[in-house]
Design goal:
With 214 residues, the protein is α/β, with parallel strands linked by helices. It has ten helices and seven strands.
Length: 214
């Protein structure tokens, strides 16, 4: 079991593909809950950070029906898996999946209307740098939607200590995540939680006159 749980950080090989399939199936309720907190226009250009199995990309492109959705993941095997899931949409030039790190992306400044990050900040090697880079690639007034199934609230991390250790996640308190988003220059940050659940979401907006994305 440990070998399988160890795959969550960077899914690889057969076990990694199994994790991707599990994520595609099991994360649907969380994903739909998170997406309910943002408006998506038909022509939006969207990035999904840590796209994993590619199902969130697929859901996003259905909403941005006249736009385009990009996905990035630093696992080459997840890039291949996600490309397979979105094969037809890639052929139609509605989806593009790239290998890369959130801390240093290839996209130009002010490129995306929305960046999503589902169940992924736990694995970022440098969270402030990742947040700065996301802000850079967002258009003025663009938004980051960061959605998480885990929470550090003094109870969850104690009750799930073994799971956290096995999956190598690094949890931060909600207040610390909010403060980090504000410290890197996001204009507003809304924190949403689900009653009776560890689910949480952050909706951070880039300042409207931040032309250089810095």
């Amino acid at each position: 079991m440990f070998g399988l749980m160890d795959q969550f950080k960077r899914p690889t090989g057969l076990r990694g593909r199994l994790i991707a399939a599990l994520m595609n199936r099991n994360h649907k309720p969380l994903t739909l809950w998170g997406l309910s907190h943002v408006d998506i226009a038909p022509d939006d250009v969207i990035l999904d950070v840590g796209c994993g199995g590619g199902k969130t990309v697929n859901r996003l492109v259905q909403r941005a029906s006249q736009g385009k959705v990009f996905g990035i993941d630093y696992s080459p095997d997840m890039v291949k898996y996600s490309k397979k899931v979105n094969k037809q949409l890639i052929a139609e030039n509605r989806v593009e999946i790239l290998e890369g790190s959130v801390e240093k992306m290839v996209f130009p400044d002010n490129f995306f209307d929305l960046v999503t990050a589902f169940e992924t900040y736990y694995f970022w090697s440098n969270i402030p740098d990742a947040m700065r880079e996301i802000k850079r690639v967002l258009k003025p007034n663009g938004k980051l939607l960061m959605v998480n199934e885990m929470v550090k609230d003094g109870v969850y991390e104690v009750e799930h200590a073994k799971l956290i250790e096995k999956t190598h996640v690094c949890l931060l308190p909600l207040e610390e995540i909010r403060d980090l988003l504000l410290s890197v220059g996001f204009a507003t940050v809304q924190v949403v939680t689900e009653a009776g659940s560890p689910w949480n979401a952050f909706i951070a907006q880039k300042v409207s006159n931040d032309k250089k994305g810095k």
